[in-house]
Amino acid sequence: MKLLKTLRKSDQNVMAKKPERIVLDTNVFIYFLINDSFQKLENRLKKHEVRLLISEELLSEFLEVVKRPKFKNTFQKNRLMN
Predict the structure, then answer these.
(1) What is the pLDDT of residues 7-44, one digit of tens each?
(2) How confident is the model at residue 1 (pLDDT cuts 50, 70, 90)?
(3) How far is CA 29 from CA 2, 9, 26, 54, 58, in A?
(4) Rounded-to-integer distance, Cα 63 and Cα 55, Å
């Protein structure tokens, strides 16, 4: 019984260390990129506190949206392609 309790505590510790998985809508992701909020997200990503999940569809939508004229000065074309 004591071993079972120890295993449960161990499982909880492992689960607590797993990064939170997040999906950002294109509008929210763009907001994060053009504001100071991205620095906070980037720090959490680097610390493996969160994992950013993105589908091919979301990535395609993002790349299409940032090519719009209103973002011309915000996003450099060469940085989007790398």
Answers:
(1) 555 455 455 578 999 998 999 889 888 887 788 888 99
(2) very low
(3) 46, 36, 5, 11, 10
(4) 12
Q: Which residues contact 48 (CB under 8 A, 6 or more apart)?
A: 19
Assess contact for 30 and 65: CB atoms under 8 A: yes
Structure tokens, 64:
């299409």
**pTM of the shown model:** 0.62
Residue 50: strand pairing partners: 20
Quote the CA–CA distance of 61 and 18 in Å, as a whole number.
28
DSSP state, residue 19: P
Q: What is the pLDDT of residues 57-75, one digit of tens each?
A: 999 999 999 999 988 888 7
Helices (H), 1-82: 2-17, 26-34, 37-46, 56-66, 77-81
